């Protein structure tokens, strides 16, 4: 099996779990990795080199908020020197003119900025922090620097009705791309699932809006709609397959086939402090656990969808059934799909408030 | 106006030694350049005009239908926004 493993294309480098925001939809783990356990810039430099040798060509510098790393420019430079195309994934908080110039100088290629809502007060409620004007400024600086700008909006009950306005905002801010991605109910977000799940009507209205706007847009803005797997009753092609396209390195060096896989208790995820990335990708038990099709249960095993959805999401199977190897319950053909139907039908009937993370950093 | 093709700022041409191919890297996307496509893009330095690029390639690949295919390929990349 080892010989046939294709190399990965992308590395999600989670530089820190620290974040000035406390988004209700945060899919990072409930227990965050403390700042003192973070990999150093030297260690990241080694990770980028190993990743490039392995076949990685792009890295997304993410978190938490990567701008909280004072040595971020050094980390960007290390990735660029390794030949990786670097994208900063940020809330925009802390992206001042001098900081951006420093990152540009280091080789930063593009920026993805999160946006919670077009209305500053609604955004504050979702993010648990007053950050809208910081984002507006960050977008302006990125555009002024001539860098490609992508907006990322996590969709849920409180912002999905603003999809039309969000697209207008993306145009006004000069974004090249807007990604409308439904909440992934892992980590902290799982706690807020009842408060976050949109209704079927909301999703349908948003879908119609996106279709209409897409027809009107003439190449200026790329509009990406990431399907709501739970409401569409369709398993998502999670990560393009387990250990197939990309890998994640968490702030403490834990290497994961997907950013949420830290929630899987039996995974025994390897760490870049102890193992070479090449071994981690090709040989480690964790990266081979759900690779390919041999692990698949019925009905995935004989299903035509298995080559497009790769059996869906292991973290979701675990979150909803306690067994990561079951068919993703989001899929309408899954034996556990009734669990998802119940969630989707019942959540909007309950009026619950968000739970926020304590403090921040 | 004479077009002197050059890669858009957000697009990076890179040799991929692991997969033994040329790639265009851009936000959220990797384009695999098959065959000699990388050699064509490598000539897009913002100084050469299209006929010069065609001539350079005709010399390097005698007998290949470069006069026909290269301008079409460059236009396609321009339409995608990858060449300016």
From TrEMBL, chain A:
Cross-referenced Gene3D superfamilies: Aldolase class I
Group of enzyme by EC: oxidoreductase
Reactions that this protein is recorded to catalyse: [PQQ precursor protein] + S-adenosyl-L-methionine = E-Y cross-linked-[PQQ precursor protein] + 5'-deoxyadenosine + L-methionine + H(+)
GO BP: molybdopterin cofactor biosynthetic process; pyrroloquinoline quinone biosynthetic process
Cofactors demanded by this protein: [4Fe-4S] cluster
Membrane-crossing segments per the record: none
Keyword line: 4Fe-4S, Iron, Iron-sulfur, Metal-binding, Oxidoreductase, PQQ biosynthesis, S-adenosyl-L-methionine
Record's keyword annotation contains Oxidoreductase: yes
Molecular function as annotated in GO: 4 iron, 4 sulfur cluster binding; cyclase activity; iron ion binding; oxidoreductase activity; S-adenosyl-L-methionine binding
Family: Belongs to the radical SAM superfamily. PqqE family.
Function: Catalyzes the cross-linking of a glutamate residue and a tyrosine residue in the PqqA protein as part of the biosynthesis of pyrroloquinoline quinone (PQQ).
Name of the molecule in the record: PqqA peptide cyclase
The species this protein was found in: Streptomyces olivochromogenes
From TrEMBL, chain B:
Any one of the GO BP annotations: pyrroloquinoline quinone biosynthetic process
Pathway per the UniProt entry: Cofactor biosynthesis; pyrroloquinoline quinone biosynthesis
ATP-binding recorded as keyword: no
Keyword Cell inner membrane: no
GO MF, one annotated term: quinone binding
Listed InterPro entries: PQQD, PqqD_bac, PqqD_sf
Classification via Gene3D superfamilies: Coenzyme PQQ synthesis protein D (PqqD)
Keywords per UniProt: PQQ biosynthesis
Subunit structure: Monomer. Interacts with PqqE.
NCBIfam families (UniProt xref): PQQ_PqqD
UniProt protein name: Coenzyme PQQ synthesis protein D
Gene assigned in the entry: pqqD
């Amino acid at each position: 099996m080892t010989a046939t493993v294709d190399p990965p294309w992308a590395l999600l480098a989670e530089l820190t779990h620290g974040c000035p925001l406390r988004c209700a939809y945060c899919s990072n783990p409930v227990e965050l990795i403390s700042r003192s356990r973070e990999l150093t810039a030297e260690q990241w430099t080694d990770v980028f080199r190993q990743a490039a040798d392995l076949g990685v060509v792009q890295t997304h510098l993410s978190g938490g908020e990567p701008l909280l790393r004072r040595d971020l420019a050094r980390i960007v430079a290390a990735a660029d020197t390794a030949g990786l195309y670097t994208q900063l994934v940020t809330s925009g908080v802390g992206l001042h003119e001098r900081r951006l110039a420093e990152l540009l100088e280091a080789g930063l290629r593009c920026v993805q900025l999160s946006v919670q809502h077009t209305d500053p007060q609604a955004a504050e409620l979702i993010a648990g922090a007053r950050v809208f004007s910081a984002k507006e400024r960050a977008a302006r600086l990125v555009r002024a620097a001539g860098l490609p700008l992508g907006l990322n909006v996590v969709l849920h009950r409180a912002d999905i009705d603003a999809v039309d306005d969000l697209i207008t905002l993306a145009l006004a801010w000069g974004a090249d791309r807007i990604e409308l991605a439904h909440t992934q109910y892992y980590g902290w977000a799982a706690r807020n699932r009842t408060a976050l799940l949109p209704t079927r009507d909301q999703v349908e209205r948003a879908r119609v809006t996106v279709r209409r706007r897409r027809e009107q847009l003439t190449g200026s803005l790329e509009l990406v709609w990431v399907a709501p797997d739970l409401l569409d009753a369709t398993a998502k092609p999670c990560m393009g397959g387990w250990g197939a396209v990309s890998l994640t390195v968490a702030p403490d060096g834990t290497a994961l086939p997907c950013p949420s896989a830290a929630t899987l208790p039996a995974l025994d995820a390897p760490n870049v402090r102890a193992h070479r990335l090449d071994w981690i990708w090709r040989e480690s038990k964790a990266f081979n656990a759900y690779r390919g099709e041999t692990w698949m249960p019925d009905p995935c095993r004989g299903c035509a969808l298995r080559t497009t959805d790769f059996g869906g999401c292991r973290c979701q199977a675990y979150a909803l059934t306690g067994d990561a190897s079951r068919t993703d319950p989001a899929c309408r053909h899954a034996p556990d799909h009734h669990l998802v139907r119940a969630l989707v039908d019942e959540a909007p009937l309950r009026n619950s408030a968000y739970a926020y993370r304590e403090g921040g950093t | 106006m004479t077009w002197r093709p050059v890669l858009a700022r957000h697009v990076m041409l890179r040799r991929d030694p692991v997969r033994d191919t040329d790639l265009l890297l851009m936000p959220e996307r990797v384009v695999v350049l098959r065959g000699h496509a990388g050699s064509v893009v490598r000539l897009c330095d913002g100084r050469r005009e299209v006929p010069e690029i065609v001539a350079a390639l005709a010399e390097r690949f005698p007998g290949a239908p470069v006069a026909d295919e290269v301008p079409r390929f460059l236009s396609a990349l321009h339409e995608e926004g990858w060449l300016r």
